[in-house]
Amino acid sequence: MTFSDITIHAMAERVITYTGYMARWQPDARERLERAAFDLFVEQGFASTTVPQIAARAGLSTRTFFRHFADKRDALFADEHAVPDQAGRIVAEAPDGITPLQIVASGFDAVAAAQFSREKSYYIARHQIIQSDDGLRERQLHTQAALVEALRSGFVQRGSDPVDALLAAHLTATVFSVSIGRWLSAESTEPLATLLRDTFDRMLRTAAS
Amino acid sequence: MTFSDITIHAMAERVITYTGYMARWQPDARERLERAAFDLFVEQGFASTTVPQIAARAGLSTRTFFRHFADKRDALFADEHAVPDQAGRIVAEAPDGITPLQIVASGFDAVAAAQFSREKSYYIARHQIIQSDDGLRERQLHTQAALVEALRSGFVQRGSDPVDALLAAHLTATVFSVSIGRWLSAESTEPLATLLRDTFDRMLRTAAS
């Protein structure tokens, strides 16, 4: 244990006492922990950040941290299920008689508005944190796999052939990942919803060519 | 250190002496190590297998193992660059005037014949080993990313727009991963090349629908 570990540990202990009181007045512990984790990952890197540091920055105890998250990685994926869940709902609630890709195209505005509503700089910083760590990249790939599975299962429930449903789900995930990559690139100024539509149209043209 | 560790260590040491002589007559050390690693992963699981065990099974020293592979994970991904390399060559050598997806469709037979030439049971067992371990799944995702990058870069060199090139690369990777999944599934009896063509056609129909 180094001197700085001891200091951080002492800080965390001090903060526990303090926030035992604060917690009654601030019900947003989860959001504060997420924010503190994110700020520390940006400032000093994911690998160098400890759970006691995150808790101390949020003014909460490590015990409170572990009531909300399994580990520090978890604090960066708090919205993990939001995109697959919303995509699954859009598919389930789509009118009869339209194809999987027509459903997907109809949902771009809603997904962009609900799931990417923060400052773009937040998503750029988050992307950089994820790229810095094998475990985080693996976790993000699980999230993408969850999107594919939510779509595939939704399409099958609407009566699609299983292979066609899987293909439509993969095509959708491709449109999302390519669009988000374009949106986060340095030169991009277009809104995400515009890029989703443009990427979708290009995907159809590429497949038809 | 447990008793079995000591035994394995002693076995490995004994084998070093033995194979110092054998190595002059058996130049296929790399293949023997790959085979020994694979057999042990199947028999006792990836996590339980150690490098000294692999070396002992192959009748070689741990030092020889580390001349060929960085770690035991590496021994399962010896052909890692084969598919991206072959895909890159097919794109580079394609005649002018045909589209990215026409190039891809023309290469299915060659890729299936060259890269999936072993018994199907080998690929099924390998798939199960990879699914058993986070690090192996991450490594496989890197291989898939390398295929996308080889294709994207090849299409750009032929003059494709960068976004269209990336989309065509992703569509190709989707056709491969869905086809391989179909091929490895219990009920499948079709050759991989047939499934690649069928999945490709379905992907085009899905995109057009």
From TrEMBL, chains A, B:
Gene3D superfamilies: Tetracycline Repressor, domain 2. Keywords: DNA-binding, Transcription, Transcription regulation. Residues 50-69 bind DNA. The keyword Ion transport does not apply. Residues 27-87 form the HTH tetR-type domain. One of its GO terms (molecular function) is DNA-binding transcription factor activity. Pfam families: TetR_N. The keyword Nucleotide-binding does not apply. This is Transcriptional regulator, TetR family.
